Amino acid sequence: MRIIKAKDYADMSKKAAAIIAAQITMKPDCVLGLATGSTPEGLYAELVKMYEAGELDFSNVQSVNLDEYKGLPRDNDQSYYYFMNHHLFSHVNIDKANTNLPDGTIEDSEEACAQYNAILDSFGGADIQLLGIGHNGHIGFNEPADTFELLTHCVDLQESTIKANQRFFASYDDVPKQAYTMGIKNIMDAKMVLLVANGEGKADIVKEAFFGPVTPQVPASILQLHKNVVLVADEAALSKVEL
Ligand code: PGA
User: Fold this and answer.
1) Which residues are catalytic?
2) What's the pLDDT score for residue 39?
3) How far away, in angstroms, is 164 Cα from ligand 1 center?
């Protein structure tokens, strides 16, 4: 694992965006595994800037997103479909037909997951998978559990995740309680994993995930077994780790 220490959020966003930009430059028809959440917002803004400056071409890029709430219409501003369009897809020349997310509007979980697994299979793993990390160690919506779920599945979100997401909704009751998420194997199939983390609030989980035991109780800890992981984090998120 490589750890890249950034000064602050802005610096983390720039450094992580530079890695994704290098991937697109090296392989213009690459498959980007993308993530939502507050952490990657800044790096998407950096990618948009590079595109606007004529430095990046997304026309042959394909993308697969980690997860999506179950039951939110796509035009709901909290759906991850909306997030991706708002923060990236609508601002660059990516072909929307080449962007993929689990379809949260499909009521039948089995059907939704089978459909997304078939899409992921057709790519055979992302060239680079971007990840954030939850305070409980989740990646995508793979919550702490007794076993690692391998493929796309429907999850019941943990109380702590629902509470963490409540800030984006009018009330607790409005937060979706289930989501479709790539499984651990889908994530580990990526040729490279880029995890971004910032802020003191992530310091304990960054230490636990990357320096503690590998366990499904801390889903991100599985990344210790991946051959090509880069962690880009700011000083605050790395404050409990000795480098
Ligand atoms: P955050 O979420 O970027 O909003 O902190 C990260 C995650 O839950 O994966």
Assistant:
1) 67, 136, 138, 143
2) 98
3) 9
